[in-house]
From TrEMBL:
It comes from the Eukaryota. The keyword Disulfide bond does not apply. One of its GO terms (biological process) is signal peptide processing. Residues 33-113, 117-165 form the Peptidase S26 domain. Keywords: Hydrolase, Membrane, Mitochondrion, Mitochondrion inner membrane. The active site is at S57, K100. It is found in: Mitochondrion inner membrane. Its main location: mitochondrion. It comes from Fibroporia radiculosa. This is Peptidase S26 domain-containing protein. InterPro entries: LexA/Signal_pep-like_sf, Mito_IMP1_subunit, Pept_S26A_signal_pept_1, Pept_S26A_signal_pept_1_Lys-AS, Peptidase_S26.
Length: 181
């Protein structure tokens, strides 16, 4: 049965090749190849650069129920700035990806917990070289650098660029961080 079907396909292809000029075949094959490449690129971009953020730690910036975000995965550590929203591999559970805001860069002196719930509000830490200090926007429901300390820049996966879903809440994330010296 398979041999009969294969023979039919070969005859059909042979007939089509005989009936068409070679220029049309090359053009048709080229266009189909470009369409396939286009689909592959779109799938790659969607899988690699669109993510889902959910949970209470980033309220009010992000919804608890979850939102789709566009992520720039080609970010170098020297381009990170205070106030950037980043995704990192969780220092507590390497199978999870978390979203946090950068509060401190290498060399910054940071108040460990301004709320005073996890550490005295007078406790400060110097952020080491190649590390950052992260915080969730909703401190009461966030496990962040107050819990696990400075985070290695090697754990940074990308910087959030925009919220893309739901469309009614589309937002381009701008860095509006005010640094007080």
């Amino acid at each position: 049965m398979l041999n009969i079907r294969l023979a039919q396909v070969v005859r059909d292809v042979s007939r089509r090749l005989r009936d068409k000029p070679w220029g049309n075949i090359a053009r048709s094959t080229g266009l189909k190849t470009l369409h396939l490449i286009n689909i592959a690129c779109a799938a790659h971009l969607f899988v690699e650069h669109v993510g889902w953020v959910a949970g209470p730690s980033m309220l009010p910036t992000m919804s608890v129920t979850g939102e789709s975000v566009l992520e720039n995965r080609m970010v170098s550590p020297e381009n990170l700035q205070r106030g950037d929203l980043v995704t990192i591999t969780s220092p507590l559970n390497p199978t999870r990806i978390v979203c946090k805001r950068i509060l401190g860069l290498p060399g910054d002196v940071i108040c460990v917990d301004p709320t005073g719930t996890l550490a005295p509000s007078t406790e400060h830490v110097l952020v080491p070289k190649n590390h950052i200090w992260l915080s969730g926007d909703n401190a009461a429901f966030s496990r962040d650098s107050r819990t696990y300390g400075p985070v290695s820049m090697a754990l940074v996966r990308g910087r959030l660029v925009a919220r893309v879903w739901p469309p009614s809440k589309f937002t381009v994330f701008r860095n509006n961080f005010n640094f007080i010296d």
